[in-house]
Amino acid sequence: MSADKRLTLPHYNQQALRNFWLSNASDTRYNLTSRNCSTSVIQALDVATEGLLGERGLQGLWVLFNPDFLLLSLVRSRAEGMTWTPGLVMDYCLLLRQVLASAERLSRYKRAASWLQQQPGNKRSATDP
Asked: What pTM was computed for the model?
């Protein structure tokens, strides 16, 4: 069976993901609710994206004001209450990508604004709107 959707995350920890798959492959047991294809994908995502927002320091806290972050936690709590399904994994991945992308955009905007303020001839101060 082939996948009907392909979701990509531009930033993740490749080494952590590789280590997870190596350790996960050694255990071939299957459990409908706690060790199925969907739960394995979510565990891999957790490992690969762990700490990405923390790398941004206090700027990573802005994610708390992102509505997609709230939806991300709602999807996760629903799945943890029952079990992960392919549809929930897809919804979670789409939201995770949005959350990570918005944090990256905010970081880029702040770097660009800082750079512009440092340019010679720029009359605006850091306190100007």
From this structure: 0.69
Q: Which contacts of 37-45 are long-range, i.e. CB under 8 A and separated by 24 or more positions?
A: 37/86, 38/83, 38/84, 38/85, 38/86, 38/88, 38/89, 39/83, 39/84, 41/84, 41/89, 42/79, 42/84, 42/89, 42/92, 44/17, 44/20, 45/9, 45/92, 45/93, 45/96
* Whole-number Å distance between alpha carbons of 23 and 10: 24
Per-residue pLDDT of the chain (129 residues; tens, 9 = 90+): 566 778 888 778 899 999 999 988 888 888 777 788 898 899 999 888 887 766 666 666 777 788 888 899 999 999 988 889 999 999 999 999 888 887 666 555 566 666 667 777 665 545 555
